[in-house]
Amino acid sequence: MNDRQVLVLAEHADGAVRRVTGELLAAASRLGVPAAVVVGTPGTAQALAAELGALGAATVYAVETPEAGATLITGEVSALQAAVTAAGEPAAVLVAATFDGREIAGRLAVRLDSGVLTDVVGVALEGDEVVTTQAVLGGSYQTRYRVTRGVPVVSVRGNAIEGAATPVAEPAVVPLQVAADPTAPRVLETVPEEAGDRPELGAAKVVVSGGRGVGSADNFHVVEELADVLGGAVGASRAAVDSGYYPHQFQVGQTGTTVSPQLYIALGISGAIQHRAGMQTSKTIVAVNKDADAPIYEIADLGVVGDLFTVAPQLAAALKARRG
Amino acid sequence: MDIAVLVKQVPDTYADRRLTGPDLVLDRAAADAVIDEIDSKGVEIALQLTEKHGGEVTVVTMGPERATETLRKALAMGAHRAVHVLDDALAGSDALQTSEALAAALRTLQVDLVVTGNESTDGRAAAMPGMIAERLGLSAVTSVRTLEVDGGTFRAERVVEGGASQVTAQLPAVVSVNEKVGEPRYPNFKGIMAAKKKPVTTLSVADLGLDPARVGLANASTQLVEGAERPAKSGGRKITDDGQGGQAIADFLVEQRLV
Ligand SMILES: Cc1cc2nc3c(=O)[nH]c(=O)nc-3n(C[C@H](O)[C@H](O)[C@H](O)COP(=O)(O)OP(=O)(O)OC[C@H]3O[C@@H](n4cnc5c(N)ncnc54)[C@H](O)[C@@H]3O)c2cc1C
Ligand SMILES: Cc1cc2nc3c(=O)[nH]c(=O)nc-3n(C[C@H](O)[C@H](O)[C@H](O)COP(=O)(O)OP(=O)(O)OC[C@H]3O[C@@H](n4cnc5c(N)ncnc54)[C@H](O)[C@@H]3O)c2cc1C
Predict the structure, then answer these.
(1) Which residue of A has its CA nearest to B252?
(2) CB within 10 Å: which end of chain A, N or C, has fewer?
(3) Contact across the interface for B223 and A105, Cβ inside 8 Å
(4) In a domain, B239, yes or no
(5) Range of B150's domain?
(6) What is the pLDDT of residues A19-51, one digit of tens each?
(7) Which of A143, A153, A302 to mutate to test the interface with B (most CBs of B within 10 A)?
(8) Is the dihedral of CA B3, B4, B6, B12 positive or negative?
(9) B181: left (phi > 0), else alpha (psi -120 to 50), else beta?
């Protein structure tokens, strides 16, 4: 076991720790002693300390200013940099592989002159070294990488790390000071995405996606109803998003969300290579398409050549009937 | 306002993309090399801004000899000049090294704005804009869907996981564009002909004053331990809906214990 600290940038909203932070702390516990870095308004770290401890953080570094959240990114980078100094020689710094997280990781890597590993799906300590696993080029290759310079800065994909760290009853809360960045971009207004009742797309065990074949925004209720019977999330192809049928945040694929559920159902999606890049690692794939030659069938465990407007409602009804 | 746009040549996402060699680097021969779609959108936004506010667009790439094709494509769209960071010693650079070389190239220009894609389709680091901003001491607004410049400041709508925000910052700055920022224009015949005469400056490791002991695969800050291709998923059963297609899927899901 490594007794070096592993720093995790904690994500939080509305007084609670985000799920991905628990995953990061679990990953950290495989590399050393997990420590959380909290950036927030005064009092935030103390309020989250018990929850972070329960998720495995032995130390909580608190970087608090009334300005937190009002500017972009560099506050988090400076906080992590200060925590790296305070921790001595941390074994690694872990952040979530979101757009913000990957920007933070990149900037921190420049400041520390360290190697950065992106969107990792697994971590391990080999000898004294952090080795990460990545699924690249749409999941068609699996690679393992190490960092040869500086403190490894690693962004970790959400929903990829399983297990949990050993809880810590009372983590030490260590305040750190960082200088404000007067030139940082200012956030004037934020409109959060509506979460709704469905599971988060990237984390869902079942995803039902609609493509251009769905034909209109109104018709998307066919996709939603099937998703709801299965307790799944709704996804969309880029063609469906660009046609205005469904919002952008639900796009699955090369330039959208990568999903890897137990079950993926594609309705009216041709199966372009860029769509497959975001879903081909799903355990079971079912496709419904009018065109018997659609490429989606090359990777579908079950393909039904037919009209989605008759097949999907029949499937939903059969599942409902089965449940009674 | 003068703008630099970073453009990257990538293997076409429509092709079967591969890694190759002991270090599993991109196999540039396996797929057609194209301008990354997101970067052509970056060029488009920059052209629109200079059409409105005046100034010129310089496109910048780092890549092998044939990456000039990508520069010519951007020049044909209307960019005014190009910079090609070209040196065999740079092959196999990782993100830390790439950002160092690109930042050095950008320092040779005087621009008010640096535009990049939010995420390349091959490396997908989504880190270059922030890393370059860090090196140049500029602020960055990443993943923007709209961008409006007003004198020395700009306003952008930024879209990331969890929501969208309105952001304001000072120029000079780095901005990365989101794929929903708008469609790129197609180069016309006149543009393609004009592109052939536009200036392309080539910069080597020595020209950029980079330390030869820090560049290239051998000096990378990240290193492959091992890697392999994952077996491709293959298709299973395909049936034609005879009026019972939905029921057939339900039976399959039950049989697979998925419901
Ligand atoms: C750089 C780049 C990035 C990209 N990123 C993504 C991405 O992230 N995600 C993504 O999805 N795409 C992406 N694409 C786009 C991709 O190439 C395809 O254009 C897109 O996936 C097509 O979406 P689709 O299958 O819904 O539409 P289409 O290809 O038009 O297919 C519609 C299908 O619906 C079927 N159909 C029509 N009516 C019915 C009916 N009533 N019942 C059953 N079937 C019906 C048709 O037979 C057809 O197969 C990207 C492209 C590029 C170049
Ligand atoms: C499959 C794969 C995985 C990789 N994983 C890692 C990793 O984990 N860590 C690591 O350090 N490196 C990694 N690399 C190498 C890294 O992708 C390259 O160094 C790359 O040039 C910069 O990263 P990016 O393209 O992913 O940048 P991104 O930050 O995703 O690119 C955003 C934008 O930056 C600009 N840009 C990026 N590269 C160039 C360029 N060469 N010329 C001009 N503009 C450019 C473009 O505008 C682009 O749209 C990986 C490469 C591959 C192919």
Answers:
(1) A302
(2) C
(3) no
(4) no
(5) 3-234
(6) 999 999 999 999 999 999 999 999 999 999 999
(7) A302
(8) positive
(9) alpha
pLDDT tens readout for residues A132-184: 999 999 889 999 999 999 999 999 999 999 999 999 999 999 999 999 898 99
Judge whether B83 lies within some domain: yes
Q: What is the rounded radius of gyration, in angstroms, for the C-alpha atoms of chain A?
A: 22
Cα A65 from Cα B83, distance rounded (Å): 42
Provide the annotated binding site of A for FAD.
212, 237-238, 251-255, 268-275, 289
Q: pTM of this prediction?
A: 0.96
State whether ipTM is beyond 0.90. Answer: yes
Q: How many domains does chain B have?
A: 1
Q: How far is CA B115 from CA A158, A227, B146, in A?
A: 28, 39, 13
Nearest-CA distance from A101 to chain B in Å? Answer: 9
d(CA B158, CA B165): 5
Neighbours of A82 (CB within 10 A): 17
| Tally of residues, chain B | 259
Residue B22 lies in a domain: yes
User: What is the mean pLDDT, run by run of 10 residues, along chain B of 259 residues?
Assistant: 97 92 88 96 98 98 97 98 98 97 97 98 97 97 97 96 94 97 96 97 98 96 95 91 97 95
Mean pLDDT of A260-274: 97
CA of B124 to the centre of ligand 1 (A): 21
Asked if A314's CB is within 8 angstroms of B247's CB, the reply is yes
Query: Could you tell me which residues come within 8 angstroms of residue B242 by beta carbon, excluding any fewer than 6 positions away?
Result: none
- At A207-225, the pLDDT tens digits run 999 999 999 999 999 999 9
Query: What CATH number is given to the structural domain containing B165?
Result: 3.40.50.620
- Whether B88 maps to a domain, the answer reads yes
pLDDT at A93 over 70: yes
Q: Which 3-state string (H, E, C) describes chain B? A: CCEEEECCEEECCCCCCCEECCCCEECCCCCCEEECHHHHHHHHHHHHHHHHHCCCEEEEEECCHHHHHHHHHHHHHCCCEEEEECCHHHCCCCHHHHHHHHHHHHHCCCCCEEEEECCCCCCCCCCHHHHHHHHHCCEEEEEEEEEEEECCEEEEEEEECCEEEEEEEECCEEEEECHHHCCCCCCCHHHHHHHCCCCEEEECCCCCCCCHHHCCHHHCCEEEEEEEECCCCCCCEEEECCCCHHHHHHHHHHHCCCC
